Amino acid sequence: MEELLILIDENDEEIGFEEKMETHIKEKLHRAFSLFIFDKDSEKMLIHKRADGKYHSGGLWTNSCCSHPRKGEDLRTAVVRRTKQELGLELIEKQLEFDATGSYEQGLHELGSFKYYKKFPKCAEYEIDHVFYLPLHSNDIILDVDEDEISEVMWLSVDELKKWLASEPEKFTAWFPKALELVLENVFS
Length: 189
Prior knowledge:
By secondary structure, the chain is of the alpha+beta class. The chain has 5 helices and 9 strands. Strands 3, 4, 5, 6, 7, 8 and 9 form a 7-stranded mixed beta sheet that branches. A two-stranded antiparallel ribbon has the order 1-2.
């Protein structure tokens, strides 16, 4: 099935659509998202290792889920869809709703976005990446990962994650440091 990504201008305004692989081969600016899932009970963050067979960044560690909204799809809908496809985790509306205090204790929060470019041998990532944060309770996190997307998952405390990234940045995807920075600044500062 053809997957049409949303092409955007420098202001993140939609300007068209392009098939996923063509978007990356032609190095066109497009919309993406990165989701960080936090287990409120263990106080650990879920990260995953991209499957070796991915078209780029295979074998590197990254946030809980990352992908692109499709033509006609808003970011929140894309986050829910891809979390189910990649992690096998079905998010329900109650988990996505904010609490009345406006804190980061509950709900799917968009923390901000950033633009980046990374060249790979046969394509490039040129994205405005929207970063999302979702705190859940342990008993709400039942994973059934898609092995074509993910080879391994790991739960780490924020401190463990920061130390590992600082000591071995080459083990992480190109977008991960900036995405994590938005989470740290907004949620854990």
